[in-house]
Automatic annotation (TrEMBL):
It comes from Moraxella equi. Pfam families: Hydrolase_4. InterPro entries: AB_hydrolase_fold, Hydrolase_4, MAG_DAG_Lipase. Coiled coil: none annotated. This is Lysophospholipase.
Length: 145
């Protein structure tokens, strides 16, 4: 595979409503200009990044570019109350609330075509800086790398 230049990496922004209607912001990086991620036949796997703490997804841009240059598609979201996501600033009612937000986010980014699911082995990859073990234990379909 030929390395992908930064010039060929495209960043997109979007939002989704979590289980309680809170608007959650996310960004994603692709190697072409299509915003329809699940239409890609050559997708290796989805890498999902979450910084944890009081950070926002834009701080993950350099890491996202490193993954995209290797042919991955990368997604990152701003946790509830952080960055551009809604909710009380720097606050979540519980860890469970954050896990439910994660579950809703996975529904948004999960590929929709069956053939692609076999290429994904049914598991996106999650890079979680601060709480990987509880995240893995409470959300079984996720593989924590």
């Amino acid at each position: 595979m030929q390395p992908i230049s930064t010039a060929n990496i495209h960043e997109y922004h979007s939002t989704f409503n979590s289980y309680d209607g809170t608007a959650m912001f996310y960004r994603y990086w692709l190697t072409d200009k299509s915003e329809r991620v699940y239409d890609h036949d050559d997708l290796k796997i989805i890498v999902m990044l979450h910084r944890g703490g009081h950070e926002h997804s834009q701080r993950l841009t350099d890491m996202a570019h490193a993954f995209v240059k290797q042919g991955y598609q990368v997604f990152a979201w701003d946790a509830r109350g952080n960055g551009r996501s809604g909710g009380e600033r720097d606050h979540a009612e519980s860890f469970g609330q954050l896990v439910r937000d994660l579950d809703e986010f996975l529904k948004v980014i999960k590929p929709k075509r069956t053939p692609m699911m076999s290429k994904l082995h049914s598991s996106p990859v999650v890079w979680e800086r601060s709480l990987p073990v509880p995240m893995y234990m409470t959300t079984p379909p996720i593989f924590v790398a």
